[in-house]
Design brief:
The protein is of the alpha/beta class. The protein is built from 13 helices and 21 strands.
Length: about 450
């Protein structure tokens, strides 16, 4: 299979460990990826980031691994990773020095590429620090791409120039398999949502064999490690990050310490329904159905009691193979992703709707947004609120002065729903308006 036919998946050392890396850590991560289901789920690349070498090149002009960190050399590390059924990745930089001040590959592209190939490297992350002002960015990335191919070894080229010079317009042409499109991610909500918002209009240039890389995941880091800056994310915020990376169809490179990762985050990043969205064969980017602001309370300002923060409401729709699609609705008030009610009310994948995230439907699903509430009420099994589970329907009577069952929503649990209609609303069914119209709950069979 050609390289990067689908978004690459793996683990990278930088987000958690930074410079604190050594061969024992890599061996332990390889063991975990092989034994805890990550390899089988598709996470195949184990990548060492910056800080692996000595500060100066050897007399032969080659980069030298730090003998204290990697006493058996990089070939032995690669062999161990390969023995676990994984692929081995390393790091270099297009500048004269890496971001941490180690030897870069500027003017050494061919010798470094051959060195990596001799060690058994399968993946090269190629950064952009300390790049000469007189240098030509595009030409230097092309040079390393050609150098890697000249080795005769298949090495995935992960270009990382932080979005400089609109990489989506030329990275595919120079032979890159994935390209970083933004600055570094930090382990907080603002950082990852800003990254997504900056790339939504650029994902159209991402696809098979050359993917927009929105940086490594911070899911499960919980404020620990090299990029643990800012307010620690909640589980719901990490869940939103992972859902957005899957829906956008970008590479999934884990960054947390897998040895201490909480079970809920392991389950999230191994969720087969979400990974199926990310790894869909057609690799289509999401379509932006809606991108605007929502009205939220602003009680501290008596003159303007309501605020309209920009870029706080999104509806994204992604077409998948076999007449399926995935969608997400995000609004600012709760800072969570919620299902967008199109295409059906019954998750065909069995993914837990209480996650407020993505559902996948096929063409046989019920279309809640276009089926009358009365019609759905007649088709559904009537249940009590105590019996209702996430994904069931909640019905209302007399809303908007319409007789009979006039409105229907998707129940999310804990009294919350996403109501069908225009506009789509995330609401509490026991709020003053909805509770007086509440008519009952229903369940549709698959």
């Amino acid at each position: 299979m050609p390289l990067a036919q689908l978004p690459p998946m793996g683990w990278n050392s930088w987000n958690t460990f930074g410079w604190q890396i050594n061969e024992q850590l890599i061996f332990e991560m390889a063991d975990l990826m092989a034994s805890q289901g990550y390899r089988e789920a598709g996470y195949e690349y184990l990548v060492i980031d910056d800080c692996w070498s000595l500060r100066e090149r050897g007399k032969d002009g080659r980069i030298v691994p730090d003998p204290e960190k990697f006493p058996h050399g990089m070939k032995a590390v690669a062999d161990y990773v390969h023995s676990k059924g994984l692929k081995f990745g390393m790091y270099s930089c297009a500048g004269v020095r890496t971001c941490a001040g180690y030897p870069g590959s500027y003017d050494h592209e061919f010798v470094d590429a051959q060195t990596f190939a001799d060690w058994g490297v399968d993946f090269l992350k190629y950064d952009f620090c300390n790049f000469p002002q007189s240098g030509n960015c595009k030409a230097r990335y092309l040079t390393m791409s050609m150098a890697l191919k000249a080795t005769g070894r298949e090495i995935l080229f992960s270009a990382c120039n932080w979005g400089m010079e609109e990489p989506g317009e030329w990275m595919r042409a120079i032979g890159a398999h994935m390209y970083r499109s933004t600055g570094d991610i930090m382990d907080n909500f603002v950082s990852f949502t800003d990254i997504v918002k900056s790339q939504l209009n650029k994902l159209c240039m991402s696809g098979n064999h050359c993917f927009n890389d929105m940086d490594m995941l911070t899911v499960g880091m919980e404020g620990k490690g090299n990029v643990g800056l800012g307010k620690v994310c909640s589980y719901e915020e990490y869940r939103l990050q992972f859902v957005l990376w899957c829906l956008c169809g970008v590479p999934l490179m884990m960054g947390a310490d897998l040895r201490t990762l909480a079970p809920e985050y392991r389950a999230l990043m191994l969720n087969p329904a979400l990974l199926r969205i990310n790894q869909d064969a057609e690799c289509r980017p999401p379509y932006i159905v809606r991108r605007d602001s929502v009205c939220i309370p602003n009680p501290d300002d008596a003159q303007a009691p309501w605020a309209h923060p920009a870029d706080t409401a999104f509806v994204l729709l992604r077409h998948l193979t076999d007449s399926e699609f995935a969608a997400i609705y995000k609004e600012a008030q709760k800072y969570v992703g919620t299902p967008y009610v199109w295409g059906g009310s019954t998750p065909e994948t069995g993914f837990d709707c209480s996650g407020y995230v993505c559902w996948v439907y096929n063409q046989n699903g019920y279309d809640v947004g276009r089926t009358t509430a009365n019609g759905l009420w007649q088709k559904s099994q009537h249940i009590s609120e105590a019996e209702a589970k996430p994904g069931d329907l909640v019905f209302f009577e007399g809303t908007y002065d319409t007789p009979g069952k006039s409105h229907v929503g998707i129940y999310l649990g804990n009294g919350m729903m996403v109501s069908a209609g225009d506009p789509i609303k995330y609401a509490n069914i026991h709020s003053s308006y909805w509770e007086k119209h509440l008519a009952g709950f229903g369940r549709l069979s698959k």
